[in-house]
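Its record is quoted verbatim for completeness.
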Amino acid sequence: MKLQFFQPKSWSQDSMLLAQEYGIHFPQAQAYLSEALVNDASFQPITSANNGIPSILTTFIDPQLIDILIAPLKAAEIYGEAKKGDWLHDDMKFVVVEPGGTTQAYGDFSNGGSTSINAEFPSRQQFLVQTLVHYGDREIGRAGLANIDLPARQRLAGATTLNIWQNNNYFFGQQFLQNYGALNDPNLPAAITPGSKKAGGNSWKNATALEIFDDIQTLYTQLTTQTKGVVNLDNAVSMNSPLKLVLSNISQAYFLRPNEYGISAMKYIKDAFPNLVHFSAPQLSTAAGELVQLFVESYGGVDTFTCAFSEKLRSHGVVRELSSYKEKLTQGAWGTILTRPVLVAQMLGV
């Protein structure tokens, strides 16, 4: 019977014949040592000592991508949002009409008294920003080894960058332009001071639930005082009006503090103002202290605040370069439009 013997190409012919002669059939062998080497007591491996394998081969990479958290972008949710114009416009004007007139005692032949209107055209200016998305051919491939879709992630990062700017613009506007935010519009009424607390100071840090409610009630009193009981076809500004209360995340936590009967400030406020909704945003923690805003959401069909944008996201197209890509993204905003400052009351220092 002829023996079948398969050898790797690296085997020498002498090694194969020697193995056949001694009846060795071991296809998995890579090489054979001579008898002299086997019996040599001084024989040492020529490779470096190693008891393991590369650590990367025992590393498991979870396919789930974990995104880093950013502060919530709440301005549009709080104040409402609308598109105004487009990126071609620099200025926006509003028409504000005020009636006027005089009266005089009646007389059959008297022509006294007159009426008039006064139209004013306040302006706002747009500010456009851009960001650049870029990624290379090799960079895309290397990111793919970690299951990261680099082009999609880069575009998402670009859109997020623009949205963070826009949210900041809605709160604080753009410096050196007629572009104001909901917290720094020059027409906003001056903020009032919270009441003194039994534990000392004016802040809510050590305030009781009832003291916090008293401050909200004071804020509401300021609002009704400013509006002077204005009415429309529905009703006057009242405790049943659609009110919005905006405060910082820190101040919101104090709402949950109960009194000795287990009643929190939030419970007091909800019972007194059934149509009030409250929101929190970190931007109301200002350098001057914790700010609180109370405003009428809409009156006579006109929103009190409107976050105005011209472009949410404009892509100028992907540009192919030698071994990479670029894409410009643009966004524009007018700040937050405040139509009736009289419908807003503020308190600083809670």
